[in-house]
């Protein structure tokens, strides 16, 4: 049995998954955790990582490395997504990550992956627990700076993928700056999302999908809210179904209240409270695009995503 780890560093959060790969190839979760570090803070405006954002990320990653040591992790892979693709001062981030990850596996370092590879890894992880007869699937990974769309079959054949440059942090920082956002800001953000959705429609065969799967923080938080959970419960969220009509009501409510009120709900992470309004606008735009191309009426929510896809890849190479 070998313990391996995956780290995903995005625009808004840094996440860790430690798993045990058993002799028969089965994979068992040991640790799954997340911290909001807002690495992409101000990147849209400056084109660089802010010093305080890099420090928050360093502290979080250092804590993850300590967890890896405690769990006797032998292999690690870290991917860096949207925020890191866009910045000038990447080297500071990579040097920091290499110094920390090297304590677990010699030569390990963070990798900037393309939006397409991000989409493929997310797909591989998200469909792990889904019944094959519900395919083809469209997996939608709504992040802080970008949103990945990938359509594929249960057997792993990818029919189309695209990384759209929109996410909850990007929409909030670029457009929805008032707290709560004004109607004008919501309308401008919705128009921006619609432009991105038209790009998706040209590239990804949305009409081929039978089941639509939402993953990452905006979708999982919306599931927790829709279910009226008193605390964040990954088991209750994973595999849940969110109907489009109910989501329209819920997202409108979220857009209409300030972030400090949102943060009072125990299922909304304090670091997500100020950007889930932007995420809500993105979700509504995604729903409109799906309805133009499909008879689907709901999302299925997956707690599994790019981290699980990374672990599957590491396990295959052991």
Automatic annotation (TrEMBL):
InterPro entries: ATPase_NBD, GppA/Ppx_hydrolase, Ppx_GppA_N. It comes from the Bacteria. Gene3D superfamilies: 3.30.420.40, Exopolyphosphatase. Domain 2 (3.30.420.150). Residues 23-293 form the Ppx/GppA phosphatase N-terminal domain. PANTHER family: EXOPOLYPHOSPHATASE, EXOPOLYPHOSPHATASE 2. This is Ppx/GppA family phosphatase.
